[in-house]
Amino acid sequence: MGYSSLLSFSLGFLLLFHCSFAQIEQVVNSQQRQQQQRFQTQCQIQNLNALEPKRRIESEAGVTEFWDQNEEQLQCANVAVFRHTIQSRGLLVPSYNNAPELVYVVQGSGIHGAVFPGCPETFQEESQSQSQSRSQHSRSERSQQSGEQHQKVRHIREGDVIALPAGVAHWIYNNGQSKLVLVALADVGNSENQLDQYLRKFVLGGSPQQEIQGGGQSWSQSRSSRNGQQGQQSNNILSAFDEEILAQSFNIDTQLVKKLQREEKQRGIIVRVKEDLQVLSPQRQEKEYSDNGLEETFCTMTLKLNINDPSRADVYNPRGGRVTSINALNLPILRFLQLSVEKGVLYQNAIMAPHWNMNAHSIVYITRGNGRMQIVSENGESVFDEEIREGQLVVVPQNFAVVKRASSDGFEWVSFKTNGLAKISQLAGRISVMRGLPLDVIQNSFDISREDAWNLKESRSEMTIFAPGSRSQRQRN
Question: From CA 458, how far away is CA 369, in angstroms rounded?
């Protein structure tokens, strides 16, 4: 009887477990279907537009501009886009995001720092006692009892792409004489983001505005709305902690805590540094990337790579321009972020081959010049056909066909792509779909003559960038 009871209990438990597991699986599948339907609804786009920033937020030493996250095109791509303009000696205070971020340096130069949890402070200055025996002069210049130490900092310049994982605190300082302009994309649809589909910036210093969230309605905004407090200044994340607990946590007095929590001036998130920022940094040029990403550890992983260097071009046409890609192969951290970047430069009246992005959305930011851009949907309908100019943003959904042609002034752009190894498939050119199809398939698909099919297939021998007015001289034998 005991064995039978145990067997019955075991069978019952297994049946109950099976039913519970089936119910859980059913709920998960239902949620996945709902999420898939939501994404499908978001990407049912009939018309695309060139987008301008919708909100401008002024800080003490710069300006932050946000594109509207509620815009249908950005929701389709599940991204948030914003732009910082930092004045000379301006510091973008430390903050972290709920989603991976890519930053492109449009102009200027500066210093970038990121703090990875659990990693050591690899940039170290000697303590006063260590340097005392070396130099009395050095001792007199030091004002601290122990040497400064912090995690690695990086010098950034025009053309650099900076990769930042979700939740990693980072800061940027403009140590140049001109403005430092950065355009950034946060992949809020990334699996690393466990909140909602809006950008959340968690600011560690300064006095951020509530609107700095970048779009949608944040939790803090919802609370303020319920309390009838619209448009109020927000605070950094230290502000809401209990004074005593914070003092004990940092082992500091409560007077200092009050200074951290309540700034007298509302400076925003880009603050002015009174004197040049003093950080430890090697004088010689740092190595930008590793020959092999396999040996990189979490703490020493390369975060930036310059995409403007012509010698790094993947495709180059001396009469047409060039295209350069940064992806998980040449910047290994992008394997984890699942993002990549493309920089395109078209000379006067040149064309980038009609193509589609096979496995990614492409968010195109115009960095210089102007040109014409056309995008075609799966229905064979034109959803975008406009002249676009510097500073505008265009979203190209996955698989939508796109072509770019430069004006007489030339045309340059940077495209953020939502895949670590984004791929394109060309319609025209030497490595195109047309070139790979049998001649009879082309002839019958378009109901054209064999000669016309041959011209369609073989007349363009350039790869990706087409020089203006150029045609292949190749003739059918």
Answer: 31
Helix (H/G/I), strand (E/B), else coil: 467:
coil
**Angle in degrees, CA 333, 339, 344, rounded to 5:** 110
Lowest mean pLDDT among 192-206, 223-237, 359-373, 455-469: 223-237
Q: What is the DSSP letter of 290?
A: -
DSSP one-letter string for 332-379:
TTHHHHT-EEEEEEE-TT-EEEEEEESS--EEEEEEEEEEEEEEE-TT
Nearest to 320 by CA among 355, 354, 348: 348
Residues 269, 213: contact at Cβ < 8 Å?
no
Tokens linked to 292: 């092999």
Residue 10, SS3? Answer: helix
In 322-338, which positions are buried (b, 16+ CB within 10 angstroms) versus exposed (e)? bbbbbbbebbbbbebbb
pLDDT at 37: 40
- Grade residue 75 by pLDDT with cuts at 50, 70 and 90: very high
| Phi and psi angles of residue 264, each rounded to the nearest 5 degrees, phi first | -70, -35
83: Cβ contacts below 8 Å, ≥ 6 apart? 53, 64, 65, 106, 181, 182, 183, 184
The CA distance from 284 to 302, in Å, is: 17
Whether the per-residue pLDDT at 17 is higher than 60: the answer is no
Closest CA to 394 of 54, 46, 66, 74: 74
Q: What is the mean pLDDT of the chain?
A: 80
pLDDT of residue 467: 94
- Give the CA dihedral 372, 377, 380, 386, nearest 10 degrees: -20
